[in-house]
Amino acid sequence: MRKKALQILISLFLLISVCCGETVTLIDFTGHQVELSAPVTKTVSLSAAASEILWALDEGKSMVGRSTSSNFPPMIESLTVAGKHSNSPDLELIMELEPELVIADTMLSEEDRKVLEEDGIAVVVERFIDPNRTLLVIENLGRALGKEERASELAGQLKGYHDLIKERISGTNSEERPTVFFEWLGKPYHSASNGTSYDNFIDFAGGVNIAANESVDYPDVSPEWVIEKDPDVILHILGSSKDYTEEELEQWRDEIISRPELQNSRAVKEGRVYVLSGTVATGVRSAIGELYLAKWFYPELFEDIDPGVEHEKLIKEFYNMKLEGGYAYPSNA
């Protein structure tokens, strides 16, 4: 009798384990504590960067919905569109899809988050451009999906790039760090200050953001202000919602170096004007963007590194794809 009772208890325990899974607790970028029953089998991603990570971890098997901006890898475009971006989710459609987890970036409003959570859907809000945060996001999503081993492989690859950059620029002093004027989204003189993701991105690669001490997160500065600062480097990062050709990136660079007010600037005269696709500034591929920045900032320290080749390897290993399109210009600087 005792033996039979024990067998019943064991069977119930196994049944509960299979049905309910392991409870996983994640702390997202906003500090919210999110509890999930892992492995999660149905997800909706409202962030292109999150979609890249999810696909790298489980080949999209868990994804039932995506944002319009989620267009990589190309196979993802067959999924249901559940909103344009995190700031414009289709809440009704998302609830119809019945995901266990929604992943969004910091543009998701607290009101929209509350609606989803009240429907019983777990919501994780993350920042995807910060180098160190990206590794943590990969680890957390790996735990949620029950893909810890794959997450470890992916994070390990990216950490290898991070460590390479940190090691090579570790011997530089503050006077040697290049000053950088950064603008983005195709908007001339629209920059970013201290504490923003883009400021972290530049700092990680060893640059000094000249707009770091501006009083607002995303200031619009004047051409005269840039000329007075006379940075070593001018960097423009385009949006991440579309792919670019190398010719398009070259056109953006030509627009910058042809601005009459910048003709006597150090960066233009020395040819240190660069354009980066936003697709390699967030998520899995942000490590490639960091390599490009590091090589542009310190060409002599990264002479043997070809970010394009590393990009090809990364895409082949985690997406089984051939790399196409343009991501940085000039890519061979």
Automatic annotation (TrEMBL):
<dbReference type="Pfam" id="PF01497">
    <property type="entry name" value="Peripla_BP_2"/>
</dbReference>
<dbReference type="InterPro" id="IPR050902">
    <property type="entry name" value="ABC_Transporter_SBP"/>
</dbReference>
<feature type="domain" description="Fe/B12 periplasmic-binding">
    <location>
        <begin position="42"/>
        <end position="305"/>
    </location>
</feature>
<dbReference type="InterPro" id="IPR002491">
    <property type="entry name" value="ABC_transptr_periplasmic_BD"/>
</dbReference>
<protein>
    <submittedName>
        <fullName>ABC transporter substrate-binding protein</fullName>
    </submittedName>
</protein>
